[in-house]
Amino acid sequence: MFTGIVEELGEVVSFTETVLAVRGPLVTSDARHGDSIAVNGVCLTVVDNADGVFTADVMGESLRRSSLGVLEQGSPVNLERAATVGSRLGGHLVQGHVDGVATIIAREPADEWEVLRFSLPPELARYVVEKGSITVDGVSLTVMAVTADEFSVGLIPTTLKLTVLGAKAVGDPVNLEVDVIAKYVEKMLGDRHVG
């Protein structure tokens, strides 16, 4: 479980077909084999950790359901260690299980912040509500507005500076994780039988 509060901007050291190596001195400072680290919102398991670099196996399912496949040596990535019991929940409950990939369709700068608009995959639209939580590339954000096929969020200067969202361009893919509570509510209501 994660909170969507990015701890560190890491850097991809290498990425073969199945093994991702990422430099992240902060998140590796106490990482052990088997620990979970979210990379752009994808929960990965630490296989090895040495000299500020951790490696993780990446299976085909993760590549199919996320934007990890576009990463290459030198790519910046959002990193977050798994939350521990007693951690502050600064964002919202995030599983690190990507629900889909969206595309940045617009960046609208303002004085101190920026509004980003994203495409919204049709199968996820029912889970995204105005003022609700959504995770974009591992960042816990509040939905400002939503339509049937897009949504927008506002990014404060800290988020622009300390996450990959500050440098992403129109057309770039991003990982989405919708609020898991919405999915559970839908399932519970769908399982109800009348009569």
TrEMBL record:
It holds the Pfam family Lum_binding. Lumazine-binding repeats lie at residues 1-92, 93-189. One of its GO terms (biological process) is riboflavin biosynthetic process. One of its GO terms (molecular function) is riboflavin synthase activity. Pathway: Cofactor biosynthesis; riboflavin biosynthesis; riboflavin from 2-hydroxy-3-oxobutyl phosphate and 5-amino-6-(D-ribitylamino)uracil: step 2/2. Residues 1-92, 93-189 form the Lumazine-binding domain. InterPro entries: ATP_synth_asu-like_sf, Lumazine-bd, Lumazine-bd_dom, Riboflavin_synthase-like_b-brl. Its EC number is 2.5.1.9. Signal peptide: none annotated. It catalyses: 2 6,7-dimethyl-8-(1-D-ribityl)lumazine + H(+) = 5-amino-6-(D-ribitylamino)uracil + riboflavin. The keyword Transferase applies. Keywords: Repeat, Riboflavin biosynthesis, Transferase. Gene3D superfamilies: 2.40.30.20. The keyword Transmembrane helix does not apply. NCBIfam families: PRK09289.1, PRK13020.1, ribE. Catalyzes the dismutation of two molecules of 6,7-dimethyl-8-ribityllumazine, resulting in the formation of riboflavin and 5-amino-6-(D-ribitylamino)uracil. PANTHER family: RIBOFLAVIN SYNTHASE, RIBOFLAVIN SYNTHASE ALPHA CHAIN. Homotrimer. This is Riboflavin synthase.
